[in-house]
Amino acid sequence: MRWLRNELLALTFCLVLVLVASWGMLRGERMVGFTAEQLPAGVGLYGAEPFRERAGHFRWTAGQAQLALPNPGGRSVVTLQLSGGTGEERLLQVRGAVNADLLLGAALRHYHLLAYAQPTEQLRISLAATPFQPPNDPRELGVVLGAVRLHGGGQAPAALQAGITLLTLALYGVLRTSMRPWFASGGAALLTITLLLGYTMRWPSLPFASVATLGGLVVAFTLLGYRVALVAWQRWREVGEAFPAKLHPILWVLLAIVYGGQGLWNQFVVHSGLALDLGIYLEAGRAILAGANPYATFGMEELIIGVSYVYPPASLPVFSALALLETSVAIRFWLVGNIVMYLIALLSLYAALPRQLPQGALWGLLGLGLAFAPFLENVAIGQINSLILLGMALFILGQRIRTYAWVGDLALALVILIKLTPGMLLLWPLVRGDWRRLVRVGLLLLLLCLPSLVLYGLTPWQQFATIAPQLLAGTPRNPYNQALVAQLVVLTAHGSTWETMALVVGRAFTLLLMASWLLVAWRRRTSTEDGVALAYGVTVVTLASSLIWYHHLMFLVIPLAWLGFAAPSRWMRWAALLAVGLMQITRLIEFGVGLPPWSAVVGYLLLLGALGFWQIQKPFPEGVP
Length: 625
Fold this sequence. Notes:
alpha+beta; globular
């Protein structure tokens, strides 16, 4: 326990030093001023133009404009230099904590507005004016905006402190891989304080909380990817055998072309026309930053699906950090992050597979995984499923490699707080009597809830609790829902006896799946084949849901990996190949032929049957050929 005590002391010293330094640098009255040329980029804000009769510059706004300005902390005084676009008086509204109607004339006026203490790092000021269009000018013009100054102080916004804390923890983790605890502690504190000094002295318009939060996540995932890649590389080096398949290489090439071509067809024909779900996350982040209800538009009706924020409040701090960035930057960050997390998940799965795999298994897993159409759709619409897949893959890796047990438990706790249903995987340590792991996951769940509780309180949790029953019930009459119950229901007339029977069959299927997972976990509780049992658990987590969009099928990469590369029978491996092929062509059947997505349903039922047959056999020793 001595090493743990030293670790905790060093980390505590690091955090206390950084937080005290940030308190000293950010307390007291602070002022930041912007000329028209220096104003940060905003929505509805045109470029700077010189005054005709005086020195300096101004900027036209559109009829609707928004500024995101640095938050000095505490109560803030915002000074705006404004004028109307014509000799007539114009009406200006400043929304948010300050809501004022200002009369404007042709001459510049100075307005001093007192804003209440803001909970986030940036002050968002919306300007609304009756627009007009002067002759020979294609622009819609609102008001003239000159200089802007902000005065405030007293305390730093909570979001800023949260971002600083996360960045410090990530830097400590990176330095700790090559330094002793106290050296890593000092280095992490020095780096964070240096960045904070740069923020306070040179980059006051930078959304530091957002950059620090996302930067900390980048550092953490980079370190994780490096460590997982090393494990996968070592596994790959241990086996000298190439791919053992007896098929002719030309046939493999043809299969790859057909499989990859179908994924690309989906990407360019189908996925490009789908709505960007990331927009929903960003809207939720902006709502929570403004103190609004991110769940206000929730509804499970067909017309409302796709515009509702459905994740628990633990994820709100990250989406709030994304919302502080420019939308184009947030989209790029999310895109790259999705791809990187998916790659780490695939490498984690490879590292957790039985050890007698040939070298070609790695390339096969990467090739099939990266061209898998549900993954490509996940990337195209900015979904969060790469993170969910990564969490479950790391949990499985942590069962096989003890040094990754903490990482796997942390990852599973994280995804439980996003999707809830992965919590069913905790049945595995429960039936095995692994109480230490269960307590660890429980404590991590509480720890991961703290940022949202500190930043936003209990209100978002109460709001989420009101929508959770609807969310779990799903939308059985949506034709694009690929759950078995939904595909049965859409074949029936609304309100008919057949619809009732379809609902009963669907719910029975869900209950049978959950019971089978309990049976498998109990039967294999003494086996060393953790991955085989957990792969079946992931199948149940995915298919037991009454709401399955096509991009959710990417979770089935986990059971497909076990069935396709580690199954004891050749027919099981071919069943996996056929199942992934049927799921791959589903969009072509839906959008190209105009039929229901029965191809996907048949594919995942085939996968479920083959994997279930494997489970009822006598457990094999570790390392099946």
